[in-house]
Amino acid sequence: KVHIPPSGPTGERFFDLLPLMKRESIIDGGEGNTPCVHAKELGKRFGLSNLYLKDETKNPTGSTKDRQGALPVAVFREMGVLEFVTSSTGNSSTAIARIVARFPDMKMHLFVGDEFLSRINVVGSPNLVVYWLKNGTFVDAHKAAAWYAQQTGITSARGIFFFGQREGLKTAYLEATDQIPKPIDVYIQAVSSGFGVYSTYRGAYDYLRLKKIPYMPRLVCVQEETCNPMVRAWDAGAEKITPEHIIPFPRGLSKSTLRGDPTLAYPYIRSVVLKTNGTMVTATQDEMREMRKVLYELEGID
Q: β-strands 52-54, 36-38: how paired?
């Protein structure tokens, strides 16, 4: 019974595949419908004639996390939840807070480590309360948010474990599939907990059942060398994250992926990567710096 129009706002277009009961619950945050660039010049450098880049910088706050901004707020409102607790490295919280600011009857409690405080780009929103953890990491903020929610009884938005956020991210893959003329063989993404990759698996699974794609793409997770707990566990063949894989005080170039302890999420990510014959790999900081430069020079994308 699923119907997907050829164009339109993201929430409207993919409504039949999103966790909302009523169309009037949809909130249009202006996210989605971002370009999928055929990176011909970059592809030549690696012998890849069919290399595509989903340019999520064209979203309202400049991040793919805008896709998990409007949908969770819509889900909460449909369920009667008007106050919630969350944590972030900046991108997702900025995206969600931007939507919450539209609704004076809502309140968002945000926990953040000190390194990420400057990444919260929401100004003057009276229904956003920020709790700053001095010397705290992303994981510390996540644990503090969970503790606060438990103590107060306020609903917690737990990232990958909240379907409202998880299902919103899959729309990037759904769009890309419709934009690229051939089936997607390999999907690559930088990850912290693997949230986006898991969401992509869900989107691909939906499209496979609808016969819109002939097979699942291989899922590839990338982490930088200074914060790669999932790659460490993957390379060791571990089914779960153990203490030797955890990075207590993560530092790195990619601020939005500095999760040193993805213990809860890893088994789920490992499962879908295995199911699609994918892998997890490390990028060195020198490679990251070089590729950022090359990407800008060859494709004009910063």
A: antiparallel
- In percent, the amount of the chain with pLDDT more than 90 equals 76
Please report the DSSP string for 167-233 in residue order.
Answer: HHHHHHHHHHHHHSSS---EEEEE-SS-HHHHHHHHHHHHHHHTTSSSSPPEEEEEEETTS-HHHHH
pLDDT for residue 278: 98
**Closest CA relative to residue 20, chosen from 91, 84, 86, 70:** 70
Q: Is 208 exposed, middle or buried (0-12, 13-18, 19+ CB in 10 A)?
A: middle
3-state SS track over 117-131: HHHCCCCCCCCEEEE
Contact 89, 252 (CB under 8 A): no
Query: Residue 218 phi/psi, 5° resolution?
Result: -70, 130
Q: For residue range 22-45, what is the model confidence (pLDDT) as tens digits?
A: 999 999 999 999 999 999 999 999
- Which residues, in sequence order, are bridge partners of residue 292? none
Residue 58 makes CB contacts below 8 A (sequence gap 6+) with 34, 35
Q: What Cα–Cα distance (Å) separates residue 130 from each residue in 85, 126, 237?
A: 10, 11, 39
Taking 80 as the threshold, does the pLDDT of residue 115 lie above it? no
Q: Look up residue 239 and give its DSSP letter.
A: S
Q: What's the pLDDT tens digit per position in 251-271?
A: 999 888 888 999 999 999 999
